[in-house]
What does this fold into?
Amino acid sequence: MSEPADWPALIGMMIILKSDIDRADPDHLQDYDLPRIRAVESELLDIEGNLDIVLPSCYREFLLHANGWSAFYWNTDLFGTVEFNGGGAAQVAWESIDIFESEAVLGDVGLSASQVVPIGAGIGSENLFLLVRPTVPDLGGNVVWISGGDSVEVYRDFVDFFSYMIEMHQIILDELHAKHGIINGADDDD
It folds into this structure.
């Protein structure tokens, strides 16, 4: 069993990266939002009952630190109790799951719609983040990222997924710095 994630540190890194991206991007192409205030245990128990799932500990711990995150990756929200209760982009996510099952996108990774729960989507977004139900043999607890309806990435758990998203944001920041001639976060004129 792996060590528990240091969610305050991981969330803090993402907040700093998103803030740095916002400052480095004169066009502000990506929204910058802070994560929502943490969920409480009773909310998670209700969600687990409604979805008939026991949330993997790493995702559960994340929600106890940040109850979802609007515009987590471009216009894709990371779900919390708001979405699990039907708000936000929840309906879009569930409809997308049905579409991706009918187009065999889920089947390409050996999954069906009944084996996943959406944990991220956005209105007008090409991204869908899915949590594989822990009861699914070999894939339980994995996170699946479907992008553009056909590109699929699978992460061993929510910590692995979140860590990869930190890397993606670092790449975005590095590209902005290169585009605008910023070295190590400071303008050349400094």
In short: The longest helix spans residues 158-180. Residues 14 and 166 are 6 Å apart (CA to CA). The longest strand covers residues 116-121. The chain has six helices and eight strands.
